[in-house]
């Protein structure tokens, strides 16, 4: 952490000779060199959690990249030189970074920014950059509009998947994971259990396909545990949760896996296996206690689950003793 702060301070100190570190505006006579530092300054602002400053610096960065690409953009895509393509790609990458920063602030401008980035990538034949922007656009439709636009999100994820599936299975798997998440969120938003079930089934199908493409991923395995829990597939749910826990236990991050243990406890409660549920809830509490900064919301959920399960287990034991 201290090393990271030192690195940030060094970036700001070096940039200050060329640009205003807050606005990114180059000092007089430094117009040619100042833009080099904009991306680095945006990184520093991001590390410091100043999202407004990140967007401001990214906008300045895109303005410089757009000016540099102006001549190349006036040339038909199929007639651009390698140098033309390079400056257009720099603009597309700058727009990608700006779109992400805008989306983090729930700024609707992100839609136009990411759409332009995807379009430029397509004119370059850069399928990977376009696929990444399709991924970003899908997340936009899931997180920025209220309510989420599931149809548009799924369309973007599906378009990105088609671009990536042949040459980049891990990226394709990530896009497939997001498609599964769309159907999962759709199911959760559906009040009628009978209408929700096909959506959960579709989510399970897509997420299991993503496992084959991405390889081990604790978050994905956790998600599958949740989906199968809602479907009432309690054995499958436990198997996916346990895989997620095993993978989380290999992580170096203290507290990893607490959330999965909690949801496994809830799945065992669904199966009326209260002793197992209580054991997993206690395990979740123990794991979270090792986190440097425990998530307060997760901590509260675990405490509530422990209190409920303790009472249920005691009532069950009392009932069994009375019956005996």
In N-to-C order, the SSE pattern is HHHHHHHHHHHHHH
Number of strands: 0
State the separation between the terminal residues, measured CA to CA. 59 Å
Proportion of beta-strand residues: under 5%
- Poorly predicted runs are none
**Which secondary-structure class do the elements indicate?**
mainly alpha
Largest sheet: none
- Give the mean pLDDT: 91
> Roughly how much helix do the residues carry, as a percent range?
over 70%
Blueprint (SSEs and pairs):
Blueprint: H1 2-15, H2 38-47, H3 51-73, H4 82-104, H5 109-124, H6 127-143, H7 150-164, H8 169-188, H9 193-214, H10 218-231, H11 234-248, H12 258-270, H13 274-288, H14 296-323
Helix pairs in contact: 1-2, 2-3, 3-4, 4-5, 4-6, 5-6, 6-7, 6-8, 7-8, 8-9, 9-10, 10-11, 10-12, 11-12, 12-13, 12-14, 13-14
In short:
By secondary structure, the chain is mainly alpha-helical.
């Amino acid at each position: 952490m201290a090393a990271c702060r030192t690195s940030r301070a060094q970036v700001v100190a070096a940039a200050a000779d060329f640009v205003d570190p807050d606005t990114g505006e180059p000092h007089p006579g430094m117009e040619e060199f100042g833009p080099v530092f904009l991306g680095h300054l945006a990184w520093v602002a991001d590390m410091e959690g100043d999202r407004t400053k990140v967007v401001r610096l990214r906008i300045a960065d895109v303005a410089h990249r757009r000016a540099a690409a102006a001549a190349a953009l006036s040339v038909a895509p199929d007639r651009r030189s390698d140098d033309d393509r390079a400056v257009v790609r720099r603009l597309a990458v700058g727009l990608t970074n700006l779109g992400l920063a805008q989306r983090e602030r729930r700024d609707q401008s992100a839609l136009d920014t990411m759409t332009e980035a995807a379009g430029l990538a397509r004119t370059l034949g850069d399928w990977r950059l376009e696929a990444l922007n399709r991924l970003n656009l899908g997340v936009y439709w899931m997180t920025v509009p209220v309510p989420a636009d599931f149809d548009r999100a799924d369309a973007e994820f599906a378009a990105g998947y088609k671009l990536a599936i042949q040459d980049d299975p891990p990226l394709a798997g990530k896009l497939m994971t997001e498609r599964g998440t769309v159907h999962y969120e759709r199911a959760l938003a559906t009040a009628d259990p009978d209408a929700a079930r096909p959506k959960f089934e579709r989510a399970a199908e897509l997420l299991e396909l993503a496992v084959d493409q991405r390889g081990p991923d604790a978050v994905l395995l956790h998600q599958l545990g949740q989906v199968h829990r809602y479907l009432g597939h309690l054995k499958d749910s436990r198997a996916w949760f346990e895989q997620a826990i095993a993978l989380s236990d290999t992580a170096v991050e203290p507290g990893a896996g607490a959330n999965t243990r909690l949801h496994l406890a809830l799945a065992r409660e669904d199966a009326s296996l209260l002793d197992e549920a209580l054991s997993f809830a206690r395990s979740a509490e123990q794991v979270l206690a090792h986190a440097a900064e425990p998530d307060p919301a997760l901590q509260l959920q675990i405490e509530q689950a422990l209190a409920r399960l303790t009472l249920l287990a005691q009532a069950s034991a009392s009932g069994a003793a009375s019956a005996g």
